[in-house]
Design goal:
329 residues, alpha/beta, FAD/NAD(P)-binding domain, 2 domains, 19 strands, binds flavin-adenine dinucleotide, Ferredoxin-NADP_redctase_2, thioredoxin-disulfide reductase (NADPH) activity, NADP, redox-active center, Thioredox_Rdtase
């Protein structure tokens, strides 16, 4: 038996991890949050205005929102460490977590809140102009592009969904795709093709995003004849997929066909007892700060219930253990 066994360890420090920390800390479970060595705060640390998180009528900067969540979790005693989990052993009743800095922690329960990484184009200008015209989320940022000309990169269902959603705001939406046909389902492709605000640019890739502090043009390359051209736009939405961060535990908990962690119904319970998931790592569809936060709350409440149930079971087993009559030998 390890020297110290914690009630709960939370891996990840986005809205899901910090919300789970607030709830478990307020339930006196003394959570430890492994926040990541360089990525504490999660995806919202990479953005500017967040206008759709309830409670902030004027909007809030992404990093400010995350620092507030962190402060709120600390206020109730969450032990937040800027550490990476580098290995997890999740199948036994006592879970073991190896830390990037060395050492191991043990806990009765673990919440996996490691998020999901949006795929990037990997071209010059993309990172620098992220939050300044480059976006990965139409639901989050579409509103900022009212009456503007913008582009979406991608050819799947989510690219079509993003493009169609963006037509509510933008005056024109270019869809730039590497091939001459879409991967999207027929119904989504038909809808996008029928929308008069959408224009397709086929067989083409973006090779650079340019702008002085804000996106103003894209450099494009035609993949059939190699010609290069520029396209004037004020926004670029990258919709080429996302990768749930499951590498650490993909061989231990069940995953869905989309690669997200499989949970039971509306709970956060994974295929392993005592292991719970929250946020974008289990969500193939909604992926919003508020849905991640809600999911962190669910995981915390499930952990509370699990720990109470296992404590009851342990007590009942201890009660039933036959006493050894020493005198009888
Ligand atoms: C540029 C951008 C702008 C966005 N804007 C909005 C918006 O305006 N409104 C909105 O609602 N949503 C927005 N989103 C989406 C939102 O950020 C996500 O839905 C939300 O952050 C998901 O929360 P999460 O807690 O599940 O994961 P994340 O925020 O991704 O956090 C996961 C955390 O886990 C950590 N982690 C991963 N592996 C380990 C490990 N092994 N050890 C320790 N830590 C680990 C990561 O480093 C990270 O800190 C935006 C996303 C992006 C990329």
């Amino acid at each position: 038996m390890p020297d110290q066994v914690h009630d709960v360890i939370i891996v990840g420090s986005g809205p899901a991890g910090y919300t789970a920390a607030v709830y478990t800390a307020r339930a006196n479970l003394s959570p430890i949050v492994l926040a990541g060595s360089v990525t504490a705060g999660g995806e919202l640390m990479n953005t500017t205005d967040v206008e759709n998180f309830p409670g902030f009528p004027e909007g809030v900067m992404g990093p400010d929102l995350m620092m507030n969540m962190e402060a709120q979790a600390r206020r109730f005693g969450a032990d937040i460490r800027n550490e990476d989990a580098t290995a997890l052993k999740l199948d036994a009743p006592i879970k073991e977590i190896t830390l990037g800095s060395g050492g191991t922690l043990h806990a009765r329960s673990v919440i996996l809140a490691t998020g999901s990484a949006y795929r990037e184009l990997g071209v010059p200008g993309e990172k620098q102009l992220s939050g300044h015209g480059v976006s990965w989320c139409a639901t989050c940022d579409g509103f900022f592009f009212r009456d503007q000309v913008i582009a979406v990169v991608g050819g799947g269902d989510s690219a079509m969904e993003e493009a169609l959603f963006l037509t509510k705001f933008a005056s024109k939406v270019y869809v730039i795709h590497r091939r001459d046909s879409l991967r999207a389902s027929q119904i989504m492709a038909d809808r996008a093709k029928a929308n008069e605000k959408i224009e397709f640019i086929w067989d083409t890739e973006v090779i650079e995003v340019r702008g002085d502090g804000k996106v103003s043009e894209l450099e494009l390359r035609n993949l059939v004849d190699g010609t290069e051209s520029t396209l004037d736009v004020s926004g670029l939405f990258v919709a080429i997929g996302h990768d749930p961060r499951v590498q650490l535990f993909a061989d231990q908990v069940d995953l869905t066909s989309e690669g997200t962690v499989q949970v039971e119904g509306r709970t956060s319970r994974t295929s392993l007892p005592g292991v719970f998931a929250a946020g974008d790592v289990l969500d193939p569809h909604y992926r919003q700060a508020i849905t991640a936060a809600g999911s962190g709350c669910v995981a915390a409440l499930d952990v509370e219930e699990y720990l109470a149930d296992t404590a009851d079971t342990d007590a009942a087993e201890a009660h039933q253990t036959p006493k050894v009559d020493v005198a009888a030998g």
